[in-house]
Structure formats: C-alpha cells, structure tokens
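Quick one:
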Amino acid sequence: MKNLPGLIPLALLVAAATRCGAIAADPPKPYGAVPSARQLAHHELEIYGFCHFTVNTFTDREWGNGDEPETVFNNPTDFDADQIVSAFKAGGLKGLILTCKHHDGFCLWPSKFTKHSITSSKWKNGAGDVVRESIG
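Output:
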C-alpha cells in the first residue's frame, strides 16, 4: 500500500500520453500505382456475367472452329436483348459482357471485313445486329 500514491501520477501520465496519441495523423502519401476513380467505380460493380452467343450456340457444339456455315445463325427468332439483360439483373449481376466475336471468328455485328458474320446469316436477312440491340 505504500506505493499506491506513486501509481496515481504514473496513471495520469499514461492517460495523458494515450490522449495525445489520439490526434489524427495525415495518411501516408500513395506509393506506386494508384487506381483512378473510374477503376474504383468498376471495382464496386463486383459481379459481372459473360454472355457467349455465336454460331456454335446453334450447332450443339461447345467449341466452334470457324468453319460453321453462317446460315446456321438463323434461329434467334425471339431474340430479346432486354430480356437477357433483365435475367442477368434478376440474378444479382451488376454488369454484362457480350462476347461479340469469339475464337471461331463469327461477328455478331454486320462486318464488311469478313463474311463470317451476321451479314452472311439468314437471321433478319443478314441485317441483324446483336451488338447494337444489346447496347440499346
């Protein structure tokens, strides 16, 4: 009990030091690459979905080789881009990436650079454009 009065000034000193340390310090300066506001906003989207839609969708093959006849792309008679987007949203996805030209080379838009595109298909008499319909 003799040392008890000496502990009180020590306790006051610890409390004062702790309180002084509670003052906010400036954050450290960034070092190296720093994400842009656009990159941070993209990061907040969290969950995206991929939509792979091409000629092999209609050939019942998982992997197209690029030798499929363009005329096979004729069956999306009820294609509705809004319905597809709504389904992705209903699933909680915040973004959708449409694969417009996959490894098989088929373009989902009318291309003047290759015959392996919507232009050579029977769908909408070669005048369809999945990409344009998808972006509204």
